[in-house]
Structures are given as structure tokens and as C-alpha cells.
Design goal:
alpha/beta, 34% helix, 19% strand
Length: 409
């Protein structure tokens, strides 16, 4: 396959359980300590802890400003992260041609807590007490919508929903739009505020969640022998993408290049990954081919690493099979939990930071990978490493596989 035109990552924005802003989240993942904690909103449930962004609703409203009253939490997180990313890219919405700016933010669930709240109002008090904003508060595409309004971005707007791969799908779509000349700037990534009593109980009933309630900060343990499920979390990860030539023309050095993307479907099961990993392997090989990279060129893998027994084993086998030279592996969910549709955007941003800082964060709560998982996992402390090319994996319910290949400029 002929390498496709790479695009430049010129801006990053993050709001995660590790903190507000890129620096806070990077410091948190490099510290390698889990952030999950007891969640009062989940009190009394079998799993009563989560990974929350450390901003109260009032603080988040102040960050967003006068339109916050009409937004659900996921849209607010998206606006805060997008503003940081655009500022980081050195762009001013007042100066750009908004018709040439695309907004693509993946979201898997939307604000499920608002569905619950409005449902209670309907059942307990009657139809007249349901908010006229009930629908826009919960729609998964309103992160994209509110960001486009906030930034005056009038170009293509999309909100892909590929479950836990949504943020990575958004970045792959953005790269394709830029390569096709359909926009000049893309504000892209993922957002999710999916922590609620119903969603948490639903994941628990599936057997997907860790039940380490006595020590929540150590509950998420990607690739550990005693891993027992993920920690549900929230957050937003937004990147600004431009064609490399356009970034150079305005004198903006890229943080990294998004050089290749691969997307496939398992066609296997609604929630379980295909045991043979063939479709995930195809996504990885497509991303490498688009980037013009050989598997041996990959220095680092930012793994999906959910901390669930089956997903971690399947992903470890994929990495060992396609990248047998054992590149370094990290998995941010040990620190940040699983932010569902936001995870792909957050982890892509962290991969960019690894390329920039030449430093690989450790996997929290891991001493060594489980027996039979042939991985070079970074544990206990960050590893300083010359990383020239890396891949970020995202795998979602429904069998969605997305791999992003990122390189140093």
C-alpha cells in the first residue's frame, strides 16, 4: 500500500480523572498511581467507585461559561478540552475560516445520567416536569455540536459512535477529511460522561467491571494476572489536526504526525473480541502500511489495555504476533480508568506526548505481565526511551478495531 499523506497534530486538550489540562494528565500518568475513588453517586451499588474528572459541576460551568446551562456533562468536557487544544495549536477562531474547520468528536453513550434523571421526573412527577432540554442534554452528538458552536466551526461535523473506539474513529475520519481536502483544520477526538447508576450496573451485570471496592485506586490492572475488569470513568481528549504543509506554512511545528490509520470489524460478537484477533491484526497492519512503516519500526504501543481478562489476553497475543521485537507497552487505563468513547482520543494524545517527551508512562498496579503475555510492559516508573514511531490501539463493543500510527515529525 502506498503511504498516505500524513497530517500534523498541532494541538492537544485533555480533561481526565488525572486532572484538567494536558500537563496535569501527563503528570498523573507518569506518576503511575490509579485515580479511581468511591463515587457518592454510585452508593449502594455492587460497584460504587469510578474515575471522575476532578471538577465539580459548578467549576465545570465556570470553565464553559454562559451557555453551560443547556449542556450535558459530556458536552461541557468537550468544550473545555477543545478550547485547550485550539489554543495549544496557536489558532484563533476569530481569525479562521470556520467553513473549513471540521469538528469530529466520538462519543459512545452520551449523558446517561440525564436519561436517568429525566426518567425519574417523568415517573415520579409527570410529563410537565420533564425538561424541554431533556433530549439535547443526552444526545451523543452534542459534544460535537456545542464545540462547533463555541469555536464557530461551520465545516463538516460528525459524532462517530463505535463504543470504546469512538475517539480513535473520530481521529481516523479527521485524517481522511484532511487528506481529501474537505477541511483545513480538524478538531477531533473523544468525549464521554458515561458514569451513572444504570450504566455502571449494566457493565457490572456483564461481568466487565472490577469489583475491588476496598481499594479502588488499585482496581484497574491492565495485563496483570489478577485483573478482574475495568473501572468506568469519564473525560475528553481532543486533538487539532492540520495538513503538515499548512502547519509549516503558518510556522507551527507539529507535536507529532498522524501517519496512518486502520479500521476493521470483527464480525464476531456484540461484546467479546474475536479470539483469533485477525480483524484487529488487519487494522494494525493497515495503519502501518498507510504510514509506510514496517512492524520493526514501531518503538512503542499505547495499548487499549482494559484490565479485563479476555481483552488483555487477545491484545497481548496481537502485539506479540505482529510486533515480535517487543516494543515498550503502556496502558493509561491503569491510572485513568476506562473513559469509554473518550479513551481513544485521550490515549492518542498521550501517545503524542510520549513521542515528544521521549518518555513512556508506567502501567499502574502492575508488577509484571501475567504469565503467557509476552509483552515488554513499562512498570513502576516511567521509562526514558527514544520513541520515533508508535501505535495506539482502540477496540470497542460491536467488534470495532481502530489503530492509529503516530510518528515524530
Amino acid at each position: 500500500m502506498t503511504p498516505r499523506t500524513a497530517v500534523a497534530v498541532t494541538g492537544l486538550g485533555l480533561v481526565t480523572p488525572g486532572g484538567e489540562g494536558v500537563d496535569a494528565t501527563w503528570d498523573a500518568v507518569c506518576a503511575g498511581e490509579g485515580t479511581a475513588a468511591p463515587d457518592p453517586a454510585l452508593a449502594g451499588l455492587p460497584v460504587d467507585f469510578s474515575g471522575r474528572v476532578p471538577l465539580t459541576e459548578d467549576e465545570l460551568d465556570r470553565r464553559v461559561g454562559r451557555r453551560s446551562w443547556r449542556m450535558g456533562r459530556s458536552a461541557k468536557l468537550a468544550v473545555v478540552a477543545a478550547r485547550e487544544a485550539v489554543h495549544d495549536a496557536g489558532l484563533r477562531p476569530a481569525d479562521w475560516d470556520g467553513a473549513r474547520v471540521a469538528t469530529i468528536l466520538g462519543c459512545g453513550m452520551g449523558c446517561v445520567d440525564k436519561w436517568e434523571e429525566q426518567g425519574r421526573r417523568l415517573e415520579e412527577r409527570g410529563p410537565e416536569f420533564v425538561s424541554p432540554l431533556a433530549i439535547p442534554l443526552v444526545l451523543p452528538n452534542l459534544g460535537t455540536g456545542e464545540v462547533s458552536i463555541d469555536l464557530g466551526a461551520r465545516g463538516i461535523g460528525l459524532a462517530p459512535a463505535t463504543a470504546c473506539a469512538s475517539g480513535a474513529t473520530a481521529l481516523a475520519l479527521a485524517r481522511d477529511l484532511l487528506a481529501a481536502g474537505l477541511c483545513d483544520v480538524a478538531v477531533a477526538g473523544g468525549v464521554e460522561a458515561g458514569v451513572s447508576r444504570l450504566s455502571t450496573t449494566g457493565f457490572w451485570r456483564m461481568g466487565a467491571l472490577s469489583e475491588r471496592g476496598t481499594d479502588p485506586a488499585r482496581a484497574s490492572r491492565p495485563f496483570a494476572a489478577d485483573r478482574d475488569g475495568f473501572v468506568v470513568a469519564e473525560g475528553a481528549g481532543v486533538l487539532v489536526l492540520e495538513r503538515a504543509a499548512d502547519a509549516a506554512a503558518r510556522g507551527r511545528p507539529p507535536r507529532a504526525l498522524l501517519a496512518g490509520c486502520g479500521s476493521t470489524s470483527d464480525a464476531h460478537h456484540p461484546t467479546a473480541p474475536s479470539p483469533d484477533g485477525r480483524a484487529a491484526e488487519a487494522a494494525l497492519r493497515t495503519a502501518l502500511a498507510e504510514a509506510g512503516l514496517d512492524p520493526l519500526d514501531i518503538d512503542h504501543v499505547n495499548a487499549h489495555g482494559t484490565s479485563t481478562p479476555l481483552n488483555d489476553a487477545t491484545e497481548a497475543a496481537l502485539i506479540a504476533r505482529v510486533l515480535p521485537h517487543r516494543p515498550s507497552v503502556t496502558a493509561a487505563k491503569g491510572v485513568l480508568g476506562h473513559s469509554l468513547g473518550a479513551a481513544g482520543g485521550i490515549e492518542a494524545a498521550l501517545t503524542v506526548l510520549t513521542l515528544q517527551h521521549r518518555r513512556v508512562p508506567p502501567i499502574a498496579n502492575l508488577e509484571a505481565p501475567a504469565l503467557g503475555l509476552d509483552l515488554d510492559c513499562v512498570v513502576k516508573a516511567p521509562r526514558d526511551q527514544e520513541v520515533r514511531a508508535a501505535v495506539s490501539h482502540s477496540f470497542g463493543f460491536g467488534g470495532h478495531n481502530v489503530v492509529l500510527a503516530l510518528t515524530r515529525p
